[in-house]
Amino acid sequence: MKPLTLNRDIRLSVSESPDGGFLLAGFDGSGDFIGSRPLKELLFFSHTRSYMGLLIEDRDGAVRAGSREIVESFGDPHPFVRFLGKSDEDEQWIGIFKEAASIYREPGLPRIIGAPDGSLKVAEGVSEEAARLLGRVFSEILAEGGIGQDRLEDVIRFRRSEASEATDVPLPFRMALRLSEPEDEDGGWMLESILVNPKTGTHWTPAAAKVAKPPSESLPKKWKPFAGTVSGMQTRIRTVLSVDDGGGDGSFIAFPLEDHEVREFLKDDLPLLQALDIDVILPGWLREAAERRVRVRASASAGSSGNARLDDALSFNWTFSLGGADIPAEQFKQLVEEKREFIRAGDEWFRLDAAWLARIREMMETAEKSGWTVKDLLFRDLEEEIGAGRPEPEDEDEDDPLFDFLLQHSLKDAVERIRSKEGIPETPVPRGLQAELRPYQQKGFDWLIFMREHGFGAVLADDMGLGKTVQLIAYLLHARESGTAEAPSLIICPTSVIGNWQKELQRFAPEHPVLVHYGTSRLKGDELEAALGALGNGLVLTTYGTFMQDHEELTAMEWDAVSLDEAQNIKNMQTKQSRAVRKLRGRHHIALTGTPIENRLAELWAIFDFIHRGYLGRFSEFQEAFISPIERDGSEKQMQRLRAKISPFLLRRTKSDPSLKLNLPDKLEENEFVPLTEEQAALYEGYIGETKAALMEAEGFRRRGIILKMLSRLKQLCNHPALFLKEPFAEPDEMLARSKKLERIMTLTADIVDSGEQVLIFTQYIGMGELIRHCLSSLYDIEAPFLTGSMPKGRRDSLVEEFQAGGFPVFILSLKAGGTGLNLTAANHVLHADRWWNPAVENQATDRAYRIGQDRFVHVRKFVTIGTIEEKIDKMIAEKAALSADLIQSGAWITELTDEELNDLFSIG
Fold it and tell me: Which of 4, 325, 693, 754 has the most CB atoms lying inside 10 A of its own CB?
């Protein structure tokens, strides 16, 4: 990052953030990204409320600021820096910021008007955009204090008087209000204005005899020059107080309050004063009272027979207590209705969180009127919202739990049954299924039917190769044969496996009507509508790509079951594909995936938003509650909470589970360690030296981009120097001499072919796949096809069929295009030419060979270049395996490494 100098232009890129603020990124005169820290120092250099930008939020090298912060900072810009727009649209935004800032700083705010209906009006001549921005500024002021729109006029009046008396002379004190408690039982509360010495923190108030006199007479001699300012401040504060001391001459505020007036002050005035940046000093014990709450306890039961079922209504018994004393339910409801903020019980004060109490009241009323069932426990997350049935605290003085929730024994059993998947009734196998289900497949089929009957979406997340396809086909046949399906069902799958789905449907359910919606000759419009009508409760099979082209027609349909194969394809929730898929409407939604989480928890949110819209809340809520504490802090508590939320709807079995009795052959996975050649080592060190300086200076997304580019370039260098240098291929002998990895892949592959066996070779780089083909063909006369994402479906299907029939011994596959959905059990060797930094992706690829139908020992070799990033990433993955096994397999961690960790990662060991 270049050092910034003064007297220069900074160009801003401006966009509105989804939460109502603004995202700003800065660029210097050369167009170089300057990062968040220097941008905050320049843009908010005089903004005291954010501590000169310290409290402004970073967003990947950009900054996120609210409307109020933007307007205030543009109202007092840096004297040596000029902010310009990076584009014409950005320049328009800056013009709006400046216009709004000038209006906001005008003495007396003559062009801002508070309308009686609580809305903000502006004078003629103010642009619509600036008016809207100013409205957001005042809305933020109200929102920060939790204040209603009815106080907007008070805020404007205060800001108007503040702006009209603004002074450039710094004050030697800070104005504040102090609420003092009664000194004895007969005394009263006192609200008074004080001056605080910022250096010593001492408080000053006028003597009792001078309180009623104007500040010009009551202030100490050294502060008398500021008497006019102090008098104006007193008057302004009085304009927003709901209590009135009768003083209007600018004298110091000092008057007693009764208990009910204190409550009104705390409830109505305190939030507003704080939003207007006026300090209010409360008694210490009153601040502590803000942390004390009412205890609520709910005891739930269901099922008169003592055997709770999912549709049984819950019966609740509510009890309340405050400070250890029970509160009758009617008194609790009265507290909610009065919306009281503080209540006195005996000699103590307690805070009543009105919003929280209202939510509890709403829950009580909903339970009484609508009736919750056992099923609602799973959807509404009641246990989490109202506690986890914690025992009574041994120490009466310790904080009470906010809410205790107790379950009747039979109710616990019912909830546990759905979460453990035990005790689910068995469903007869459909007559039309031409297959014998294994015991665990029968259990998966039973579970899918159970989830359908009770209205639960389902994520079938069995390991690759355990037969998710046949379980879903059995489910579809049952829905058709039982007559519960009244409309067609829809399956969306990757292009690479649509041929496999066609063959499996023909094999396991030859009588089930199927419409393949794929290719340029697919039906559209009226023809598609007619075909769907004729299909009845049959099946439509399509791909993700085709769905996106025809999503308007397909999302307008009402389907019976909507199923996603390789559901991780919708993991990026912001893509048009993911959003469109989540709009599909079906009686039952099912997601099939062997890897519900490949990289980030956000992927899990997208899949669950498909099976149950809104179940995990808004994404911002999910991010705050789970993603940040789990991915950033490794929070075991939040991991357990998330596990409890998703487990009822997710069925996951692995091939390593002995209870499945798969009788799969053994599998050996090992690393093949190879050294760098002298040429590779020299290129490696040279590239690191050239790029490390830029990496260490970069921030945010620019830093991440450099890391990912370095990773890709270095991994290609570990494969072969020609790939790194983008050179054409030379003679095979010369190519082998420049890479020990390529040489070892060739000898291993030749030995496997000589022994009459077949092998899969996976690589993430097209160039590496072509290089392996080139060498195999020239050296050993082995013609190895290379399956990539651009290969047409017909060619892909014929190659898979030919390989399975033993037509050729070596199959090279792109890791992404060939790593999922294919059945390649003819191979009993798997070579990973280059390491992927997410083990889940490698495991998916390996499972093309190691799956049901494999009856031979499977040997998996992963090539690792000694001393390079490949070896270091391999060690890091091993260290993170425990977390991956628990819940998440994260690949994004590698871009978040510290400078020290990156130094170690990129150095040759």
Answer: 4
- Residue 278 and residue 378 share a domain: no
The two most distant CA atoms of the chain are separated, in Å, by 109
Q: Minimum mean pLDDT among 453-462, 553-562, 578-587, 895-904: which range? A: 895-904
pLDDT in tens, 399-422: 334 466 666 666 666 677 777 788
Domain assignment of residue 410, yes or no: yes
Q: For the chain, what is the domain count?
A: 5
830 close to 859: Cβ distance less than 8 angstroms: yes
Mean pLDDT, the chain, rounded, equals 80
891 pLDDT tier (thresholds 50, 70, 90): very low
Co-location of 645 and 513 in the same domain: yes
pTM above 0.70, yes or no: no
CA distance 793 to 779: 30
**Which among 762, 749, 745 is positioned nearest to 845, based on CA atoms?**
762
- Of 144, 162, 180, which residue sits at a domain end? 162
Is 252 contained in some domain?
yes
497 exposure class (CB count in 10 Å sphere: 0-12, 13-18, 19+): buried
Same domain, 302 and 233: no
Alpha-carbon distance of 825 to 325, in angstroms, equals 70
Q: Which residues are CB-neighbours of 528 under 8 A, at least 6 positions away?
A: 517, 522, 553
Q: What domain range is 76 assigned to? A: 8-162
Provide the 10 A C-beta neighbour count for residue 747. 11
Cα 341 to Cα 178: distance, rounded to the nearest angstrom: 19
Rounded CA gap, 770 and 696, in Å?
35
Which phi and psi (to 5°) does residue 512 adopt? -80, 125
Left if phi > 0, otherwise alpha if psi is -120 to 50, otherwise beta: which for 409?
alpha
